[in-house]
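User: Teach me something about this protein's shape.
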Amino acid sequence: MNDKGFVKNIDKGIFWFMCGALILTLFATAVTVPMKYQKIKQENESRMITYNDELKGIDLDAQKAIADLKKYRNADEVADSLKRDPFVKFVKPDSATDAQAESSATQQQAEPETASVELLSVKYIPMPIIYKGFISMPDGTVTAQINFKNATRFAKINDDINGWRVVSINKKYLIMMDRSKREVIFEYNRETPSEELSATLKDLRNGSAVVVKKGQQLNEFFVTDITEDSVTLSAFGSTFNLRLNK
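Assistant: First, the predicted structure itself:
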């Protein structure tokens, strides 16, 4: 065998060796990659199971905390419960006793609040119109001077002022019609009461007096109704009636 044949055989050997090594590498890769993927998948599934268990534990703890809080009526009772001896078994009162205690606590809370408000007066809210002046011209034309919400206006018969139409004018009375076709008589230079009532309430805690209408609020009290001698308030889920001291 000459030198060229020897070199050629060496080259072939190297070629087939590299081919075999490549095939072994591909085979090893084909085997190890699915195994690694399977291992990663199993680890992820294990983590998911752990996370789910932890979430269930958190959910159970939250439900237990909510259930525990429902045993108490206010924040003070919760604070007191946290201060109790942990080695003494907690005994929840029976429902009848608990309901009675809750009712008593509600009454004790509501009664002082009701006493903190006093009804001073009730009156009808004045109309926004005051008949302030009568002007008569030589030709017989008459004009009324009208104060509408503190603004002075001059109007003749059939003139319109913010939805109020002038029907009649004389020295003593002014007759106007509103949008609902209701006629109202305004006496010269005097306030005319409307059909809506207002009440003056005194807050006994600070001595302030406040005028309120139906639907308004004073501190924690909502004004639900006003009559000529009483005011109905609501607070704490209860209704209270204040009457004038005559």
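Now, about its shape. The two ends are 141 Å apart (CA to CA). The CA atoms of residues 135 and 143 lie 5 Å apart. If you'd like, I can walk through any region in more detail.
User: That's plenty for now, thanks!
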